[in-house]
Amino acid sequence: MLTPQYVKTSIEERIGRIRLNRPERYNALNRTMIREIVEAMEQFDQDEAVAVIVLDGEGKSFSAGADIEEMLDATPISMELLDPFADWDRISRLHKPLIAAVHGFVLGGGFELALACDLIYATPETQFGFPEVGLGVMPGAGGTQRLTNRIGRTRALEWLWTGDRMSASEAHHLGIINRIVEADQLEANVLAVAGRIAAQPMMSVRLIKDAVDKAGDLSLQDGMDHERRNFYLLFGTSDQTEGMQAFLDKRQPTFKGN
Ligand code: HXC
């Protein structure tokens, strides 16, 4: 990948960090920026030095959504030909834990980006919302599906039709975000959680995500069959032997990630 224009990336203690970096536009997501975010995620997903990926935003906000200026003159045909959501779809094929640390405005495509992550931590002042209806459009990067999966049809429709802003406490109450953390502690808290997950046996973490993702797609029995195959697979890892032996030896395990 060429040097990204709109994201900053780094690796710290097995945590791959991606920071949205277009603060003068509230990190509005243009197509180049989305591609850079997804490419950075994919690179970290493939990188053995990275166990967990953390996404956050530079400046006053995580993201005010897709770049409205860029979309103004779009037509159905230009959208069909550009297929802008092909990049977004790649996010759901990532294997490693993705954590969003959000603050300020988390609107439209910014909210969809956060919802595409596995865990979301937010500051008390964070405002979430889907204002697309007021622009004569609607969410297009999974918002109607992921919000409905999280909070149910009746509540999702109200948020999506009104475009109202949702406070961090409402989002927490609705089960959309994991935790609310004071702004000056958000980064440290998220890195601590990421560090704890990074220290777990890597294949367990990976196959747990894989199984949980099936919960929305498969019948209960098919989901349980899938879970079971993942469970059996973990008996092929050295971390399973080490984890169980360490328990019996009454010592701390040393995991190798395989
Ligand atoms: C393009 C944006 C933008 C956006 C802000 N800016 N949001 N540019 N796309 N989504 C720009 C403004 O034009 C302005 O540029 C600068 O950022 C600062 O914004 P202000 O509006 O002056 O700031 P403020 O008054 O503090 O209001 C902040 C705000 C507001 C509440 C976040 O900007 C806002 O409502 N933005 C739009 C939010 C929205 O509708 N999002 C949904 C987008 S559609 P200048 O040049 O004047 O300084 C979407 C569809 C997703 O996300 C589909 C799938 C991807």
UniProtKB/TrEMBL annotation:
<comment type="similarity">
    <text>Belongs to the enoyl-CoA hydratase/isomerase family.</text>
</comment>
<dbReference type="InterPro" id="IPR014748">
    <property type="entry name" value="Enoyl-CoA_hydra_C"/>
</dbReference>
<dbReference type="InterPro" id="IPR001753">
    <property type="entry name" value="Enoyl-CoA_hydra/iso"/>
</dbReference>
<protein>
    <submittedName>
        <fullName>Enoyl-CoA hydratase-related protein</fullName>
    </submittedName>
</protein>
<keyword id="KW-0456">Lyase</keyword>
<dbReference type="Pfam" id="PF00378">
    <property type="entry name" value="ECH_1"/>
</dbReference>
<dbReference type="InterPro" id="IPR018376">
    <property type="entry name" value="Enoyl-CoA_hyd/isom_CS"/>
</dbReference>
<dbReference type="InterPro" id="IPR029045">
    <property type="entry name" value="ClpP/crotonase-like_dom_sf"/>
</dbReference>
